[in-house]
Amino acid sequence: MSYRVAIMGATGAVGTEFLKILEQRNFPLKSLKLLASGRSAGKKLKFRGEDLAVEELTEKSFAGVELVLASAGGSISKQFAPAAVSAGAVVVDNTSAFRMVPDVPLVVPEVNPGDIRRHKGIIANPNCSTIIMNVPVWPLHQANPIERLVVSTYQAVSGAGAWGLWELDEQMKAYASGAPIRKNKFPHQIVNNLFSHNSKIGPDGFNEEETKMVLETRKIFHCESIRVTATCVRVPVMRAHTEAINIEFSRPTSEKQVRELLAAAPGVKIVDDREKNYFPMPLEASDQDDVLVGRIRQDPSVPDGKGIAMLVSGDQIRKGAALNAVQIAELL
């Protein structure tokens, strides 16, 4: 069986990754429609050796479409996703627009695939940092319920979209040539620098990215009692987010038990060679489906052997966005 699919936001960083993944995974397509803003209409994108023309996104774009992969921004999704559902399509939405809506499933296929069945036309893709954390943390939580997660993120500029890649590239060129370094959309210089994640700070002092990681993890895990705190930082890396994760379990555990669980977990690859000081790196996580996990060690600051610390790295455009959405579509 094959399907009539549309990509909403086809010219963006995640949109072009959708094309790559649909081709690589040989997704069963009857037709593929590329949708973007009017200024991108007519642009050609390669898919399976052919040039496909981008069409302007309107509320009439979804006639005959069965599946929409959406990554055009939250306001665009809020405007057009209901029209797609009304036309009979299922929308897998990669924005924050519907993630915390109670009756919209928020899904990481390795964690809560069963939630897909509850959809009413829209399924939400979690935040990229949440996905990259949850893939390795979930199998540990299943075996030994987690009481508290402390995570610090080191987030690549591409997490901000295609413009983030452009801005770092331009600043790198300026730095190398001795030219003035100009900021465009980032609030601070990113080359040779890092700064607190460039999302709005709430009244509690946490930025939106940090709050997403907390609330989304509780929803995906179906566990309101899990305590999560995050510090999210933007770093001058092109692609793939890295996260330092500290876990406090409800029962004692060992490094050996954690390694065994992660070695058998879907979507996880252990990269942990202490002798060579070789651990997860964004350079090697880029373009990979799996989340790399290493630096696995007992945390002696947590009493009774209940603490584990580890480092993870995952491609936030791929597993943190496009791949996760396509995996949801495959399960559909």
What's the topology here?
Blueprint: E1 3-8, H1 13-24, E2 29-36, E3 44-47, E4 50-56, E5 67-70, H2 74-86, E6 90-93, E7 122-124, H3 128-143, E8 146-155, H4 162-177, E9 195-196, H5 208-221, E10 227-234, E11 241-249, H6 255-263, E12 268-270, H7 282-285, E13 291-298, E14 307-314, H8 318-331
Parallel strand pairs: 1-2, 1-5, 2-4, 5-6, 6-7, 8-10, 12-13
Antiparallel strand pairs: 3-4, 8-11, 9-10, 11-14, 13-14
Care to describe what's here?
It is a single chain. The protein is α/β, with parallel strands linked by helices and 332 residues long. The protein folds into two domains: 3-126 and 321-331, 3-Layer(aba) Sandwich (Rossmann fold); 130-316, Dihydrodipicolinate Reductase, domain 2 (2-Layer Sandwich). Helix content is 30%, strand content 25%. The protein has eight helices and 14 strands. It has a seven-stranded mixed sheet, sandwiched between helices. The longest helix is centred in the middle third of the chain and has 16 residues, at 128-143. 45% of the residues are buried.
How would you briefly describe this protein structure?
This protein is of the alpha/beta class. The protein has helices at residues 13-24, 74-86, 128-143, 162-177, 208-221, 255-263, 282-285, 318-331; strands spanning 3-8, 29-36, 44-47, 50-56, 67-70, 90-93, 122-124, 146-155, 195-196, 227-234, 241-249, 268-270, 291-298, 307-314. The strands form 2 sheets. It has a 7-stranded mixed β-sheet, with helices on both faces.
